Amino acid sequence: MTIPASRFIQTLFCASVLLASAARAAEPSVSFTAPMDGAVVSSPFDVRFAVTGMEVKPAGDMTPNTGHHHLLINAGPIPKGVVIPADDTHLHYGKGQTGAKVTLPPGKYQLTMQFADGAHQSYGPAMSKTINITVK
Ligand SMILES: [Cu+2]
User: What is the pTM of this model?
Assistant: First the structure.
């Protein structure tokens, strides 16, 4: 008994779709564990950072595919290779922290987490995540 050609092609197609999604899942990325997008929070509130496919290291460590988290307040992702400024709205977690308590006055905010290397050079939009929250 032989497998009909159409069935064989269908199987191949399914296998390639699975492989493609596996490759996508392996792309490094970051995400907020907290707060959730659209959340209403009381200040101070917990921010939790997660990263997959790269490793957290303190600032200064230039091991490839490692870096530290940044929180950008009312700002979008930083282009790849650009050094992230250090000021009131660009917070660096250069000790390798994976979370922080953040204090903000009441209002609506756009929060962007941005992963960057040991010299604070951004890994670009692919290694960022933006959410909108309300501080009550
Ligand atoms: Cu930094």
Answer: 0.82
